[in-house]
Design a protein that fits this description.
It contains 15 helices and no strands. By secondary structure, it is mostly helical. GO terms for molecular function: antiporter activity; xenobiotic transmembrane transporter activity.
């Protein structure tokens, strides 16, 4: 019988990972509150610039998740130095991609901001101008954010989630202090927000680089390793784009049913995103532990871990489902006092509640399969679930007037399809390929 991993080992990795995942969304709330005092135009400029910047950087999370999978196998095989070096190659890749983003972003900032702000020509809109002023400075943080992603990846791979917590909180803490000082105190306005972001990102990236150098991970660039990371990245980017297409389509369709519908959808969707952060912390622990087990040749241990984290995810999901069911009359009024919106929230709310156990299992098994390097399977099944399940129901909702019921039915079908796919995959065990490198 395979050795059982104590729950405290999962918690040891998952607990510090959760604040790291939540740090950026929480900081964005602070940033929004500070800029909001400047008026409508700067806030709208931040909204457009921030969304554009986040859409680009969020597609490159393979530098974190992909690096974790590869480094964890090497760490499990007793090759810690090589696991850290994997982080070094991911860091070189982060610097190269980040620099390219910086250059291209500066070239296209004006026309892209004009398009998303509704301007016919670049520069003829106050909102577009505000977005460009923020974006041109924020883009200098692109290489720094990607270095931080790579740093998170290799440290999770060697089962260290405490240092990333300290580094990310140090960077975000500095940004949170500088933001009001630069925006209001110094009088830089909206560009001060972007400058505060870059300063915090520089601190976090610098700490990760210093740790990598101390452990001898900054070796010469190795094209073969970086190509392998890019192959894994291709699969993870395709999977991420499927999520983006679904959620953007859902928001667009919800908006067609009026302001109250889109507001109710937004409230429940933001709670859904928050819950994905909590469950992703368990997935990160699973990814690190499963990768290390397979790297050490422990197929039975990896499969036992898959069963354990699945049960943990289910328990968490059931617990959160019960909690949110009890809060149906309490939590929505925290977000709005509008009677029309509050009347529509329960339509989406009960789908959200019912999906919690499903999400708990799916995200746990996502972590297992990512730890095994089974990204191609996750890419294919996520795209299939989106194209065959989520997207048809979303657009059918528009055609047939199903509203939020149709949209959230689509999300439920999407999650159910993913549950079946990852559940069958985990049960068959084909993902459990031993060795330091898959």
């Amino acid at each position: 019988m395979a050795e059982r991993v104590p729950l405290r080992e999962v918690v040891r990795l998952a607990a510090p990972a959760l604040p790291v995942l939540a740090a950026e969304p929480l900081y964005l709330l602070v940033d929004t509150a500070v800029v909001g005092r400047l008026g409508v135009v700067p806030l709208a400029g931040l909204a457009i610039g921030g969304v554009l910047f986040a859409q680009v950087t969020s597609q490159l999370t393979f530098l974190s998740y992909g690096t974790t999978a590869r480094a964890a196998r090497l760490h499990g095989a007793g090759r810690r130095a090589d696991a850290v070096a994997e982080g070094g190659q991911a860091t070189w890749l982060a610097l190269a991609v980040g620099t390219a983003l910086l250059v291209v972003g500066q070239l296209v900032a004006e026309p892209v901001a004009a398009f998303f702000s509704g301007s016919r020509e670049a520069g003829d809109s106050a909102v577009a101008d505000a977005a460009v002023s923020w974006l041109r400075i924020a883009l200098f943080g692109a290489p720094l954010i990607l270095v931080t992603l790579a740093g998170n990846g290799w440290m999770r791979g060697v089962q260290d989630t405490v240092r990333p917590l300290r580094y990310v909180l140090a960077g975000n803490g500095l940004s949170a202090v500088l933001c009001p000082v630069l925006v209001h105190g110094v009088g830089w306005g909206l560009p001060g927000s972007a400058a505060a972001n870059v300063a915090g990102q520089a601190v976090a990236a610098g700490l990760f680089l210093a740790a990598l150098r101390r452990e001898g991970g900054l070796r010469r660039p190795d094209p073969a390793t970086m190509r392998a990371q890019l192959v894994l990245g291709r699969d993870l980017i395709a999977r991420s784009l499927a999520f983006q297409a679904c959620f953007l389509s859902a928001a667009a369709v919800a908006a067609r049913f009026g302001a109250a519908s889109v507001a109710a959808h937004q409230i429940v969707l933001q709670l859904w995103f928050f819950m994905t952060l909590v469950l992703d912390a368990v997935a990160i622990a699973a990814q690190s532990l499963v990768g290390a087990a397979l790297g050490a040749g422990g197929v039975a241990r990896a499969r036992a871990l898959a069963g354990q984290v699945t049960r943990y995810g289910l328990v968490l999901g059931v617990g959160f489902g019960v909690l949110f069911a009890a809060l149906v009359g309490v939590l929505p009024p925290v977000f709005t006092g509008d009677a029309a919106v509050l009347a529509l929230v329960p339509v989406a709310w009960w789908f959200f509640v019912a999906m919690q156990p499903v999400a708990g299992v799916v995200f746990a098994l996502d972590g297992v399969l990512l730890g095994a390097g089974d990204a191609a399977f996750l890419r294919t099944t996520t795209l299939a679930a989106a194209v065959l399940g989520f997207l048809p129901l979303i657009w059918a909702s528009l055609v047939f007037g199903w509203g939020l019921v149709g949209i959230w039915t689509g999300l439920s079908v999407f999650m159910a399809a993913r549950l079946v796919a990852v559940g069958v995959r985990a049960h068959r065990g084909r993902w459990a390929v031993p060795g330091a490198v898959r």
